[in-house]
Amino acid sequence: MRRETGFLAVYTLASAAAVLFGVAVLALNGSMGSWPRNLVAWLVGALFAFVLARVRPNAASVWAMLLVPLFGIAATFAAPDVQGVHRWVDLGPLHVNMAALLLPMAIVALAALGVNRVAVIAAALALAALLMLQPDASQATGLLAAVFFLSLRAEGSPVGRVAVVGSVAIAALVACLRPDRLQPVDEVEQIFALAWRTSKLLACFAVAALACTCLSPLLLIGRPDIRAAALALCAYFATVSLAPLFGVFPVPLVGLGMSFPVGFWLGIGSLEALRRRAAAPRIRQAGSV
User: Residues 180-187: contacts with CB within 8 Å, 24+ apart?
Assistant: First the structure.
């Protein structure tokens, strides 16, 4: 039980450190007007996660956690493109990467619903198709990693599970192969190179903090009822964090950008809500003894 309740503390400390190390790099390199955004986003995300974790999940709320991201990502195609790429929606003064914001919550919802039902599989494939069309290779590959772990633990025909993973893999491959003309930004995609030039020690601390953030859901794998959700969310976190090693992709939390800090928190809040729901029967049973 201590490990289960401690995962939130580990995530909170590690993600805060990752954001703060990134903020330090930005501040030391003269980005004085932009560095507070990540801090504000982390705090806002923590507030959203606090509220979300206290919502008792039922069928309707879990479906909402899946459908809101689906329609949110679809909304990027109604917004103006950036050099042919559709990833953002403008919400007032905010330029929001909808997949980075909403996909972690959708992954937890997929785990809760189970990828062995036709409607859930259709939603997962629709998410993969949207990410392919945007294109967003980092997010599509992150979804693939999550679906792979969910399929390992799903019930049903092995052929069906292979078909689901194969379909999402094809979408991710197409997303990787589609041209992306966006140019890298030092503060976003190349923040670790910038950190290394600024301070090698600072860069190492930032990498360690981000790694601990990504691995924090693994503290819940001892619980069979939420193991699939924890593995899937960890796989997504790790994949999108490693993606910048293989292409021009934004670095979560450490790099400049408000969508990832809030999005990661939404995934953690959703996972904590599932943990609380799963633990509730055991608590009631213990109290009645």
Answer: 180/85, 180/135, 180/137, 180/248, 181/83, 181/84, 181/85, 182/82, 182/83, 182/85, 182/248, 183/248, 184/248, 185/256, 186/29, 187/26, 187/29, 187/31, 187/34, 187/255, 187/256
